[in-house]
Amino acid sequence: MIKNRPLILVVNDDGIDSKGISFLSSVMRKIGDVFVVAPHVNRSGSSHSLTLHQDIYIEQFNENNNEFICSGNPVDCVKIALKKVLPRKPDLCVSGINHGSNHSINGLYSGTLHAAMEATIHGISSLAFSHLSYSEDINFEPFASIITKMAHSILRNPLSSGISLNINFPDIDFDNIKGFKICKQGKGFWSEEFKYVKKNKSKTYYSMRGKFNSDLNDVQSDSWALENNFISIVPVTLDSTSFLINELNYLEYEF
């Protein structure tokens, strides 16, 4: 039970200037004492990557609101926040709100989700929020009460060890949302194209574009939930061992 105001770490992968993190941090400030540590530029798609071969800097972005920028990736932001910025271990970490989907296999690429998972590694209950729209003009305000209720609930009842929650909001009018749905990760794949940009001596440059294809047949999946106007919540585990491990017993042998 949190007796005093909880300490909350807010992170993202879209960068410190993102509308999503500005809104999320404002909601969290009504709940507890907030520290924001975010990349200085957009680091979308960075997954769980670390900055290992160059120095990382942190810089105070807004002294009055305990906001900091970090030159590294989202996971770096969490690590350096815990070691060098926060006065103590936070009671909650929230990541986002991401501009764009992180449902289905998109979670594998997501810096938003993996920032939350990094906090989970350190024993901190963590939530990752994403909205399916990539627009910077989204009105997040209707989601404030939902996010607040979820944060309060997790603060009262911390998540089990090794679990993060991956939460996605459908891209529809808020009044048309049917509710929450606890889901499993959906299946899908990217159809990608590499568009020729230029050739410079021996180097050929391309830009990558793609379309995501979701399998919408599984009613238990986050893809189905979002397509049918639900907010999807997927419990994501740090242990990625397949349940089919016993099928590989034929590979075992002793020296």
Structure description:
The chain is of the alpha/beta class and 255 residues long. It has a single domain (7-239), classed as Survival protein SurE-like phosphatase/nucleotidase (Stationary-phase Survival Protein Sure Homolog, Chain: A). The protein is 22% helix and 31% strand. It has helices at 19-28, 74-85, 106-109, 111-121, 144-156, 222-227; strands at 7-11, 33-39, 58-62, 67-70, 92-99, 126-131, 163-169, 179-182, 188-200, 203-214, 230-237. Strands 3-4-2-1-5-6-7-11-8 form a nine-stranded mixed β-sheet, with helices on both faces. α2 (74-85) runs parallel beside α4 (111-121). The protein starts with 6 loop residues before the first strand and ends in an 18-residue tail after the last strand.
